[in-house]
Write a structure and sequence with these properties.
mainly beta; eight-stranded antiparallel beta sheet
Amino acid sequence: MDNNSVPFEIVATGEVDLYLAPVSTPFPTTPSETPPAPWALIGKSGGQNYDPAGITIALAQSTTELRGLKDVETRKVIRTSASKKLSGNVFDITAETMALALNGNAIVETPGGADKGFQTIGLSLGSMVTTYALLMRSVSPYLADGASQWCFPIVVQSGSPSVVYSNNGAAGLALEFTALVDTTQAAAKRSGWYEAEHEDASS
């Protein structure tokens, strides 16, 4: 089924799913391969649980301009910092999704009996931050029926979500994932990489 239309490079769709897995989990070999376990969707129904405002990938950097004593013009620019962040609001406040905002705290299940069963998750956080591998799936900017994927080998959930119960919208979690450097990857891929299918398979 086609998921993009010409011009393909203009992507105007919210067809996005996010997956998490333990660090060092292999990424799918192609953007169309179904992510196998232990990859797990963020949100009970994946993209159906994401805020229509979208998922944002920020490729941020800071630079410094260098000037010589005898000249006011810039002679050189150096990069002083760089970061990759992925953020979005997930309309899912199950304990399983809440755990992402709570450092992966354990969920304790109390089975039903005379009373309804329930799940409990602690809200306290320690100083150490849980790491994950993160995969984002979307459409290809080259093909009508192609896929793309953003791969981040190590991330932490760095957002500070506020859960709002309101008559004006769904309660959700504003999650933000910050990429860390994976020194086992090639230099250009240490903080992640992007892949997109660009041609159909040969017959």
